[in-house]
Amino acid sequence: MTFVVERLHSAGTAFSVEFFPPRDEADEAVLWRSIRELEPLDPAYMSITYGAGGSSRDGTIRSIARAATETTLTPVAHLTAVDHSVAELRNVIGWYAAVGVRNILALRGDPPGDPYGEWVPHPQGLNYAEELVTLVRSLGDFCVGVSAFPYGHPRSPDLDTDTKYLVRKVKAGADFAIAQLFFEADDFLRLRDRVAAAGCDTLLIPGVMPLTTPRTLRTTIRLSGAPAPHRLLDRLEPLADDPRAFRAEGLDVVTELCERLIAEGVPDLHFYTFNRAKATRELVNRLGLVPARA
Ligand SMILES: Cc1cc2nc3c(=O)[nH]c(=O)nc-3n(C[C@H](O)[C@H](O)[C@H](O)COP(=O)(O)OP(=O)(O)OC[C@H]3O[C@@H](n4cnc5c(N)ncnc54)[C@H](O)[C@@H]3O)c2cc1C
């Protein structure tokens, strides 16, 4: 099984894709159609998020196992510490290993129901992602990723503190970090500069949302934790009632963002697919990220 870092250490910018677990059979069909459509483009890896509840978690485990055994893709399983004892986390990690998943994105997660509510750790659980990185590392030969936040994590008092704890996750054994959504290339590059100034040379990967609908724009604003710049809103908001025009302009915006990130030498562009392949395929083609063998 290939490690993410092996796939990203070659020259040039790769791309990767993120999915969420299916909620029902119809969802599952959509997810697998999308995975099969993206597979021939040879993404560096594919990841599946880890939800807060049992059925969603089963969906992650089932889908990532299928990706590991039935596709040519390099799977990355997300895992959070939410509502899990250390014993349960060990079980999930052991299960990932048993189906051949050797890449784990180790996250603290948010309190279920209210992401900004008080964080209450499981009585036999973990408090921070850093501890999960250490746990995963102690259980075998895994390549471990963590999250990073261009505008700082919403719970961080300031960017210096935020950077300090990100670097601690890397020192605990993380091999790469995927950045939360952001608006301008400079916002990501400032994060990269902060991490480098702290003496850390981890692989830092930008997360990119194809802006195809007003909903994807709202999701980007919510997840980024920052207000969208007027420059972006002025381009997209007037098109909110014209789906075709919004999609065309949104994909132009994202293409420009990605072109700048590629010029800045990022190792990978990590696309949030919303379990659909079309927009990511278009972007990958526009940006010339398709490998010659595809
Ligand atoms: C790429 C990406 C993928 C994600 N995937 C998922 C997913 O699949 N499922 C899901 O539920 N959520 C997911 N999330 C959301 C994530 O779980 C939340 O943002 C969560 O609030 C923080 O998780 P973390 O791993 O960054 O936590 P941590 O790194 O633990 O940080 C949480 C906060 O605590 C601070 N902190 C860290 N360590 C310490 C310490 N030792 N002492 C004091 N303070 C500390 C940090 O600065 C930060 O403010 C994802 C986020 C990103 C960016």
UniProtKB/TrEMBL annotation:
<protein>
    <recommendedName>
        <fullName>Methylenetetrahydrofolate reductase</fullName>
    </recommendedName>
</protein>
<comment type="similarity">
    <text>Belongs to the methylenetetrahydrofolate reductase family.</text>
</comment>
<dbReference type="GO" id="GO:0005829">
    <property type="term" value="C:cytosol"/>
</dbReference>
<keyword id="KW-0285">Flavoprotein</keyword>
<dbReference type="InterPro" id="IPR003171">
    <property type="entry name" value="Mehydrof_redctse-like"/>
</dbReference>
<dbReference type="Pfam" id="PF02219">
    <property type="entry name" value="MTHFR"/>
</dbReference>
<keyword id="KW-0274">FAD</keyword>
<dbReference type="GO" id="GO:0009086">
    <property type="term" value="P:methionine biosynthetic process"/>
</dbReference>
<dbReference type="GO" id="GO:0106312">
    <property type="term" value="F:methylenetetrahydrofolate reductase (NADH) activity"/>
</dbReference>
<dbReference type="GO" id="GO:0035999">
    <property type="term" value="P:tetrahydrofolate interconversion"/>
</dbReference>
<dbReference type="InterPro" id="IPR029041">
    <property type="entry name" value="FAD-linked_oxidoreductase-like"/>
</dbReference>
<comment type="pathway">
    <text>One-carbon metabolism; tetrahydrofolate interconversion.</text>
</comment>
<keyword id="KW-0560">Oxidoreductase</keyword>
<dbReference type="GO" id="GO:0071949">
    <property type="term" value="F:FAD binding"/>
</dbReference>
